[in-house]
Amino acid sequence: MNKMRLLAFLLLFSFMSCATIEKQDNLQTALAHFKIGVAYYNENKIQQAFVEFQKAYELNPKDKEVLNAIGIIYLMHFDEIPKSIVYFEKAVSVDPHYSEAYNNLGFAYEKSGNFDTAISYYKKAVSNLVYPTPEKAYINMGISYYRLRKYDLAIESLKEAIKRAPNLDLPYFKLALCYNALGKYGEASAAMTQAINLDPVYKGDRGKAVEDLKLRKLNATGYDEQDIRDYLEILKY
To answer: For FRET with 1, which of 19, 47, 138, 173 sits at 20 to 30 Å CA-CA?
Structure first.
């Protein structure tokens, strides 16, 4: 009887060992597919990246970075906002402190025009004190407040972004819009000047900024078109 029990235990141990080895192999293969996907994405080969991320997901459906990556492609490249939300929500269910996915969830809702929900996710992102890039969520939060015409809150959020990343041009561009909407034209002009000085393309050249914005306005629509119109107006001050 003891021999039978020992044999059963050995068989079970052998099965568990094989299952563990198989799981480790799957995780390593999934990681390899994810890295290949990132390389494709960085080369702007979006479909190839998507295929690799899907392969990684099939092997390891609990990898938050894979889930986030798939969500990004659905959001930014396939224009399938509901599907992107599904994957971002899966990512934060795996890690409730995953600020990058909360920021992306916010952006998905912002793109769909649901600014209040977007802000709630941006706040979750920045509530994590070890989030390495909170300025992204603060900028997005500021933009959402601006769309809601809550200009003081927008300014507050954008200034929080500047505290954390003072050399970024984007929060200054958005600050200029807020001040302009409040009729604070001098402050709008000052913010715009700082934005142009920090912009890696404009490098302080207002004329270059004007020409570029005029070109961008030709293909812009919706909020983007209105923002560019306002930028050009501010540049006249």
So the answer is: 19
